[in-house]
TrEMBL record:
Protein name: Glyoxylase, beta-lactamase superfamily II
Pfam family, one: Lactamase_B
Annotated ranges, domain Metallo-beta-lactamase: 30-241
Gene3D superfamilies for this protein: Ribonuclease Z/Hydroxyacylglutathione hydrolase-like
Originating species: Thalassobacillus cyri
Coiled-coil region list: none
InterPro entries: Metallo-B-lactamas (IPR001279), NDM-1-like (IPR050855), RibonucZ/Hydroxyglut_hydro (IPR036866)
Amino acid sequence: MKDRLIPVTSVRSGTEQPLTPDIHCLPIQVVNVCFVGSTAHPQDWVLVDAGMPKSADEILGTAQELYGENNRPKAIILTHGHFDHVGAVEELVDHWEVPVYAHELEMPYLTGEMDYPEPDTSVEGGMVAKMSRMFPNEGIDLGSHVHKLPDDGTVPFMPGWRWVHTPGHTQGHISLFRESDRSLIAGDAFVTVKQEYLFKVLTQEQEISGPPRYLTTDWTTAWESVKKLDALKPELAVTGHGLPMSGEELTENLAKLNREFDKIAIPDHGRYVDEDEK
């Protein structure tokens, strides 16, 4: 595996974290955005996910610091279309005029055809779960700017990477994996912070967990997705929420999540919890 440039032991919103020579993580409030591409080749990079609403200026500023003022990305790749992963995508597309790619099952939510189910405020969890009633669930309309990912698993403008269908959190959720150094961009297939609890979100206490409970609608499929990612044996994982995790710590924690998903991830109660399947 490529050496990490710095150990990631803390995180501050708006501060870019270089993880490998060509993976940079930008935390924006409570969600992570990834810049994939070496700064030595500033014309060849891709943005993965698009952060919270009103975060376009932070993303544009970081892109300029990393790759220069006039080097826009080749594309934007979306792990899924929830509000905290597409918050700035419309502004970024208008500014950069670049294509957006997502799984075909996410397309209805990105072309104005469908809205996501409302957040489940009844789900087991802390203050963030209760606050989720305020989170937007409306789809967005990217029109002709959005395209479905290739059926062969390749990722446009990301040589060496492949997309992995990891549904459960949403039907068309994907993760991105690079075999050469076993780097994983997991989206919300699993996360490294208990996203339902306000204190843990504020302190970014690192703890592997399943997808955020209040927006996950299919727990059986979500577990299958974790099994699929554990089988890849990643060496570095950048998740949608929480600090990146790597090495033995990642291996042990992801294996534990796989084994004990029903205890760690699936809530005891909630709108989308089927007690018979736990």
